[in-house]
Amino acid sequence: MPQINFAPVQGLKLPAPKHIDVQGLKTRYYEAGQGEPIVFMYGGNFGSSDSASSAPVWSLNFLPLSDGFKVIAFDKIGQGFTDNPVRNEDYTMASVIRHAAAFIEALKLPPVHLVGHSRGGFGVTRIALEYPHLVRSVTIVSSGTLSPRVSPNEVILSNSPYAPYSRESARWIYEGYSYDPKKVTDEWIDAVMEVFEQPKYKVSVQKMVEEGAGARYFLPELAKQKRETLNWLREGRLQRPTQVVWGQNDPTVQVEGGFDVFDMIAAHNRRTSFNLFNHAGHFSYREQPERFNALLAHFVRNASA
Amino acid sequence: MKPTTRSITVNGAQVSMLQAGPTGATPALLLHGGRTGQSPIAYGSHLWGKALQLLGADRPVVALDLPGAGGSDLVSPNQLTIDGLREHLDQVIAALGFEKVHVVGHDIGGLAGLWLTLSSPRKIASLSIVASAMAPPMGDGLDDIVFQSVPAPLWSRESQFWAFDRLSYFHAHIDDGLLDACVAAGNGAPHRAAVAAMRDEAIRMRNFGIPAMKGKMWAILRDKGIGVPTQLVWSDNDPLAARDGGNMLFHILAEKQYATYFHIINRAGSFAFREQPETFAEIVGSFHDGVDAMMPAKSAA
Fold first, then answer.
1. Is the pLDDT reported for residue A252 higher than 60?
2. Dihedral (C-alpha) A261, A267, A268, A274: value to the nearest 10 degrees?
3. According to the model, what pLDDT value does residue A1 have?
4. DSSP 8-state class, residue A214
5. Which residue of A4, A263, A298, A304 to mutate against B (max B Cβ within 10 Å)?
6. Helix, strand, or coil here: B172?
7. Does A294 contact chain B (CB < 8 Å)?
8. Which superfamily does B4-137+158-294 belong to?
């Protein structure tokens, strides 16, 4: 393996973002480095007014790993700086997955190593199931969406005491997700604020909340798709090297759910491993970036050998 | 690069080892498992197989023969206890000139590594406990029947194959190279000395000093915890080291050590480093790299 410094370097900035047309939607992504391609898919979904994920959430992993790999972090449809869905009925996880797969296809890369967190962990699993020709390996990080168990995140994160679209609200949410609140850096919150400030983001909140796309389309469609996905995993349809990474101190996802995800996949897929990080909440890749980066680099190297 | 055999003299006794890898990074020290003189397998550095080279891709790796195993002399029956082993390991680490070392211990070697780290953490960069049924709390366990009907004669090729087969998920790794080395180790003077020592009932009954040591160990873990990054590397199909015990030990260590990790390797029994060497090296190698990156100043030695 090329010598990689797995520790994030203070003050180093992401390269300028790029844009590509995917399904007629302007899609923002970051790209750096050379080698086996790793594509990061973050969590959350469109239409939240108290937190907002976007590609820079991977900054602590993207930059160190760009020393040895081609790393790509993109904004999902309706999130970050990628255009919103055109129709209300496209505010679904299925459309997020179609868009993500179309994005990967548009980059014309050899099969990629997918890394997905939370709702993105569900997303990358689904891409590997539906579009296996695009995928070389799968890393699933703390995904309550994929776990067959109840997730208590609504208990931890409902009714933020702060105003919508505020720094304080975003900080309250991500601290609630974390083991160590000090790991929620200003740089992270800055990225959230940039997303909040776009008019198109407020439109997505309007659609999901006020116009009811969340209740009418997103949640019921996700529930159906989740049942199908769990059945597919239990049938052994996930046929790529897979690692499951979980945070021991995630207040929003049960550790037992991580074991369940591992067990479902491992029953049919030899190349499956389970990795539990102590002192890590929902964002293990931000709370322990050195360890996460080293694990991912070794995994990707083996999966491409 | 093929591993090479090396011997050093510590306190007048021969200590034999396999080594691989380039110099530069913090070295890794591998401690094999087995109850020397008692196990139906003649354990030793020869068990690590391909994992030794894989772990040595980027850093020096030394796999020891513990006293009474392989080519390492048994100086006294005291070395067949966890306390005796700990003392021995301290001396070997000093003799090898290691300032810092990543310790990787399998089975009883994992427990020895744990005791070494708790007693003298100064030179330990990290600890990996691999498939160690003896390291977690035992509770009121069941009697161990995995080796209930070992075929005679002990330490013959057939008998050792049977024992490996009992402990493995799949038997393909039990090849001629492994069995040749195990038969040679079983016939070696150190192993014969360990077997002879075990004929003494008093030595046998102290059970490698494990029960006496574990009480002290839990008190330290309860009060102070372990001072270095520590991971447990378990297997999904290990007839000895169950997930439940590993998970409980993880929680005990995680209480006071932030850098604690629990890994499970799929389709492997007690010998994940032989049965799934690439995955094993991925998990252990990435731990060493990650710990080095977390503590660049400390691991520069």
1. yes
2. 50
3. 61
4. I
5. A298
6. helix
7. yes
8. Alpha/Beta hydrolase fold, catalytic domain (3.40.50.1820)
pTM (predicted TM-score)? 0.92
Domain count along chain A:
1
> How far apart are the C-alpha atoms of B159 and B270, rounded to whole Å?
17
ipTM of the complex: 0.86
Confidence band of A200 (pLDDT split at 50, 70, 90)? very high
**Residues 6+ positions from B149 with CB-CB distance below 8 Å:** none
DSSP per-residue string spanning B248-279: HHHHHHHTT-SSEEEEEESS--TTHHHHSHHH
- d(CA A108, CA A42) in angstroms, rounded, equals 21
What would the pLDDT profile of B54-112 be if each residue is shown by its tens digit? 999 999 999 999 999 999 999 999 999 999 999 999 999 999 999 999 999 999 999 99
Q: Residue A176 sits in which domain range?
A: 18-303
Q: Report the CATH number that the domain containing residue A138 is assigned in CATH.
A: 3.40.50.1820
Q: Among all residues of chain B, which has the CA nearest to that of A297?
A: B286
B80 near B198, Cβ under 8 Å?
A: yes
The pLDDT of A153-173, averaged and rounded, is 93
Look at residue A7 and tell me if it is in a domain: no
Contact at CB, A293 and B290, closer than 8 angstroms:
yes
Share of chain B above pLDDT 70, in %: 98
